[in-house]
Every structure is written in structure tokens, then in C-alpha cells.
Design brief:
By secondary structure, the chain is an alpha/beta fold. It folds into 2 domains: 264 residues, Aminopeptidase, CATH 3.40.630.40; 129 residues, no CATH class. It contains 13 helices and 13 strands. A 6-stranded mixed sheet has the order 4-1-5-8-6-7, sandwiched between helices. Strands 10-11-9-12-13 form a 5-stranded antiparallel sheet. Helix 2 crosses helix 10 and helix 7 crosses helix 10. The longest helix has 26 residues. The radius of gyration is 24 Å and the shape is globular.
């Protein structure tokens, strides 16, 4: 019986692969800017998952529109395209076509999770890239999202006989290699890091067979914002604060992903300023390794701790020392100024903060000696904040960390 079943399945797989291989090329866009396609899942007569007095389609659209506005306001060189910007139904294949036709550089599909058991205690956000599921839970998420094709009139023809409810249909994803996998995973990791930094439960990065991702021809991710079957989480997600938090998390991840890609294309020499607590140039080994020791900088030249958005030179430092880069350890971000002794700071004190792109960003330690800050990070910070990293300021302005390190090296040779 099993042999017969797979003899039927492989022609379907072959037909699906051929359909993808011979896809008509996307029409050329009229805009050469970096293009982001934002896909609000479900819509119209497809409500998606349903919670208590809330529908998934409404959460998805609310976050998608806020995300788009953040990008348009802060990244003027990025073009935003929505698969839907109102409550209408868009077939899965059409969503991918929109992205392909505008030659998108990124595709972000926004969804809200649910559990059939309606277990109200499960919560957390997770991000998916295309691939073969590794767990039953991941398969169930993909089946839920793919089942929308069943309400399309021509789904059997459009999706080459793919059955979203059959586990065997997902074997196809084992044969398909996505050339954008590395970039997609990188973006997914940045998104999850931002969720974590904004106080959301991190359920990690996963792979599964999502049709909407399979048909896109660019780095693509599918975000599950949380569980609509958890009344507390559903209320948060539909609220103004909740939807804004999730949109801002995705926005900052996208901005840093773009910085990373631009830096890679420029050979790692491009000046990139991170907009959140994962810098675009974090992969540069110079920002993680100690620099050969030089004579110690006198203690009175160390920059003082300040609680505010301004960075001031040490009171007794010379003019020459005052103009040098000041290194700090960025530990976390918040949407508001945290109260003194907040648990989010995990006992580190004293701390400083600065404001950037609507976020309050907290730092620990300040020194014009990069090596001292690196040692402080390793001994006092890494165990508490595994995603902490070193940043630099000069004359009160944030600067590129790699340039700051190069300047530190030059200053030691004088």
C-alpha cells in the first residue's frame, strides 16, 4: 500500500517542480529602490485563526500597516509594497506573484498562531523560513497556514495537486533547495532577537513548508506574532501598544538586515550604523577580539556614567582625550525609560541609556580603552545578556564601531 501511495505522489512532485521551474519571469519594476513586500496573512472571507472576540486577519493587518509606516518614515530609500492594505482576500499564489512582479528584495509574511486544543497557556513569537519541517508542531503550523488554498476555486490546478492536509505532500520540500536560505535565516534570527529585546517570549527560528514562501523569488520569512488562543496574548497583539511593539521589532530587524547585506556587498568596508541592539557590523571579528595591549589610560580619562541621551567627556580629561571614541556595552532596549532597579537590567548598575528611533537603549560601562570594555563585557555582562555588544560614541554622537576601533589603535601608536 505504501509503494502505491508514493508512486502517485512523485508525479505530483514532478509537476509541482516543473511548474516552479518554468515560472514566467517577474515583470520589471519601475523603481530601483530596495523593495520590501509586506504580506498581512488571511483577509476578507478568510478570517484566519479566531480567538475570543478577535480574528487573526485583523491582528496581521494592523501590524503590517504599522510596520510599513515605520519603514516609510525612517527608511526613505526603501519602497514598501503591501499584498493587501485592507480587509480583502488574496490567494496565496497571488501574494507571491505580487512580490515577484515588483522584483522585491525582501518578503515578510505576518501571521498569528493558534492551537487546535485552545490551550490558553501557550504563548510566544516565532519566525519561519522555507524548508522541511523537523517537528510535528512545525508541520501543523505550515498545514494551518497552507490550508487557505482550500477556499480558492482552482487550488488543485494552481498548486499542482498539493494537499495542505496531507503530510506526504510536504515531502516535496525535501527536494527543493532555496538559494535565499542563508539570508532568510539571518533575517529570521534578527526578528526573533528583537522580539526578545522587547520582552516577548522567543520561540525561535524554524523551517517548514509554506507555499507562500516557496513561490517567492527573494529572501522570505513568515512571522507568527503570538497565539490568538491565549486571551492575554491576543489582547496584547490587537492593542495599539502590542501591535506597535511587534511592528517596531520587525522594522528594526529589517533595517539591520539591510545594513548587513549592504556591508557584505561592499566588502565589509561600508559605514553602517545599527538601529537596534544588533549592529550590522557585528560579524566583523575586530569588534569581538582584544587588541594588543598598550600602556594603560589614566583612570581620570575614563568617561563617566550618565543616565540620559547625551554622552559627555570625562570631567578631567584633556581635549585630546575628550575627543576620543568612548566604548560602551549595549545590553538591552525598551520602548520606555525603565524604573530604577528594573528586573530587565538583571542587577547591572550603574547603567546609562540613549534614545534612538523611538527606543530607549541601555548601556553598561564606559571607557576610552576598548580592551577594558571588552574585558568588562566578558566578565560581567555576557552571562546575563548573551546578545550584548560594544558600541562607540565620539563627541556625543554614535559612531561606527569598526571605525572607533581603528581610531583607538591609531591613538595608541601616538
Amino acid at each position: 500500500m505504501k509503494t502505491t501511495r508514493f508512486n502517485i505522489l512523485y508525479p505530483i512532485i514532478g509537476a509541482f517542480l516543473l511548474a516552479l521551474f518554468f515560472q514566467a519571469p517577474a515583470s520589471a519594476g519601475n523603481d530601483n529602490r530596495f523593495t520590501l513586500v509586506i504580506d498581512a496573512g488571511h483577509g476578507g472571507h478568510d478570517p484566519g485563526a479566531i480567538g475570543r472576540n478577535v480574528k487573526e486577519k485583523n491582528i496581521n493587518l494592523k501590524v503590517a500597516l504599522k510596520l510599513g509606516r515605520l519603514v516609510e518614515q525612517n527608511l526613505p530609500d526603501v519602497r514598501v509594497v503591501y499584498t493587501r492594505d485592507r480587509d480583502v482576500f488574496i490567494p496565496l499564489h497571488r501574494r507571491a506573484e505580487i512580490a515577484n512582479n515588483v522584483k522585491a528584495d525582501l518578503f515578510v509574511s505576518i501571521h498569528t498562531n493558534s492551537l487546535a486544543s485552545r490551550n490558553s497557556r501557550v504563548s510566544g513569537a516565532e519566525t519561519y523560513t522555507l524548508g522541511l519541517h523537523r517537528t510535528q508542531e512545525n508541520l501543523e503550523v505550515a498545514q494551518k497556514e497552507n490550508s487557505v488554498i482550500l477556499i480558492e476555486d482552482d487550488y488543485k490546478q494552481q498548486y499542482a495537486g498539493f494537499n495542505p492536509n496531507s503530510a506526504e505532500s510536504y515531502i516535496i520540500f525535501e527536494f527543493l533547495q532555496d538559494k535565499y536560505m542563508a539570508q532568510s535565516v539571518s533575517l529570521a534570527q534578527l526578528v526573533q532577537r528583537q522580539f526578545r529585546n522587547n520582552g516577548r517570549q522567543d520561540k525561535g527560528v524554524h523551517q517548514a513548508g509554506f507555499l507562500v514562501l516557496r513561490e517567492t523569488s527573494m529572501p522570505s520569512i513568515l512571522v507568527e506574532l503570538g497565539y490568538i488562543t491565549n486571551p492575554t496574548e491576543a489582547s496584547f497583539l490587537i492593542s495599539e501598544n502590542g501591535s506597535a511593539t511587534m511592528a517596531r521589532s520587525i522594522y528594526t530587524a529589517i533595517a539591520n538586515y539591510r545594513n548587513q547585506q549592504r556591508n557584505v556587498r561592499s566588502g565589509g568596508n561600508r559605514e553602517t550604523t545599527p538601529v537596534t541592539n544588533i549592529p550590522a557590523d557585528e560579524t566583523d571579528s575586530a569588534s569581538r577580539e582584544a587588541i594588543p595591549e598598550a600602556p594603560a589610560v589614566p583612570a581620570d580619562t575614563r568617561a563617566p556614567q550618565v543616565n540620559g541621551s547625551e554622552v559627555q567627556p570625562a570631567r578631567h580629561a584633556s581635549k585630546q582625550e575628550a575627543s576620543r571614541p568612548v566604548f560602551k556595552i549595549q545590553i538591552t532596549t525598551s520602548s520606555r525609560v525603565l524604573p530604577k532597579g528594573s528586573r530587565q537590567l538583571k542587577g547591572l548598575t550603574p547603567v546609562s541609556y540613549y534614545k534612538e528611533n523611538g527606543l530607549v537603549k541601555y548601556t553598561y560601562g564606559e571607557d576610552t580603552d576598548y580592551n577594558r570594555i571588552l574585558r568588562l563585557k566578558r566578565t560581567k555582562v555576557d552571562a546575563k545578556f548573551k546578545d550584548a555588544f560594544i558600541i562607540a560614541f565620539k563627541d556625543g554622537q554614535k559612531m561606527n564601531i569598526n571605525e572607533a576601533i581603528r581610531e583607538f589603535k591609531r591613538n595608541r601608536r601616538k
